[in-house]
Amino acid sequence: MKWRTERRYRRLPGRYNRPFSRHALWLGEDHLLSVQSNRLSEDYRRYYYRDIQAFVVQRTGGISAWVFGAGALTAAFLLPGLFFDYQNAFLWTCGGIFLAVTLYLISSGPVCACYIQTAVSRDRLRALHSIRVAEKAMAIIQQRVEQLQGPLTVEMTSLPPALPSASAGAAAPPPLPTLRTPDSGWLHAAFFALLLVEAALSVLTARGAVAFIHVASAILLIAQIGCIVAILVRHRRFEIDRKFKVLVLASLVVTSCLSYAAFMLSAFDKSRRQDFTPVTGFADNYPGAVPLRLTSAAADGVIAVLGFVMLAGRRRVMRRAPPPIAPE
Amino acid sequence: MPIPCPKCRAALPNYFFVAANLTPCPSCGAELAVRAFPALFAPPRQEGSGDPLLEGEAGCFYHPLKRAFVTCHLCGRFLCGLCNVEFKGRNWCPVCLETTSRKRKETDLENHRTLYDTLALALATAPFLVFFWPAAIGAPVALYVSIRHWNSPTSILPRTKIRFMLAIFFALAEIALFGFFIYFVLHLPRLR
Question: Which of B6, B43, B111 sits opposite A56 (nearest CB)?
Fold first, then answer.
């Protein structure tokens, strides 16, 4: 029985990890292996050292966007842990974990997009997402490439880069951004309608009608989460204005912040009353519940109305605009 | 092919190739660092188009009117410049290359692999941890996948069989747990 598979590759620094995707780079004998995995299968792409023309690193930001998310979660857990005397161990543990994640992300330095270019392709190497890691990995790859191609001289750089000859004309040109199909916006309309329903529900709750609030809130929450996931997927596949993305994101942030505030106020109230039943947020009656519900209703209503207005404007523009010309 | 800026797609000037640090793109201002290699400046390789056959010369197996100049290292067929594929320092005919790729005889030709060990481990653990009851189906399936694919190729990267072993362990433990549960349910009235 072979315990370990043959060791043909050496791992390079840099890894891009998401729940359902993972990118990594491995150094082979005569090629660089880019591995894209969905956890249950792997796709490979090989770049032979003799074919690699260049690496391009583009600085995309001073800090990873995830730092803000992780930082916000750290504050969300640590601040109540400091001021409230309720479920302290849980809050401190979660806050500590998110603090460690935030510090790790900050320490990884500026973020970048790294591209590899050959004569017929130009691909992004997602594994190299921070400048420090990209430099470390490229220094290793450079040694291998220069063993085959030799070092780059000043005379070479004074020449214009080689253009493909007529015989090589059949080779595929580097990929250009393709025109994506415009989004019809029906899912956004459904999402904004759900926001309106939520606003109405918040008003009803503020007025004291809480009999059906548990079931309705749960159904609405599931529908909203499903809608947001579907919208985020559609944002990648279809063309949609940036303002819609911002609006969906804003609604997500507003809902999260208000839910968080509701849970914290409820938890604080329960700890004051020595009540150790589970916190249910919007369904509980705690000081400040009514203003919070009204704020939630107003915020949801404003976002929903704004969304509908924007959708109507977009439809009007799309009706007037000529159909897009497909790229040759 | 010139190197374009990833942001604005304008061709980057040559001073980028010798710049050591991040340099702003003259067109859009995006901060870029380029590490270029001699392949960028080398003229494109001229692939053989297949010379016409002259009298007394051997013809290509696939193009009888073209002159053969190498043989396939696997099947020995004569090949012209059009049919010859150089791969890993050897000459291949397209049919042998395709067959080798299909039969997974050459790892360097594979571009996709299923990770059966991870799949087995996921089947053994995820249903149990998340929903519990589906583990009654997940555990036997995980056991089957582990045994069936014990010798199947998994990743081409260095990897041990620890996931298979863990999957078998968890699957057997879950099957035993469900077995005990069924036993107690069936014998509960008698035990009382």
Answer: B6
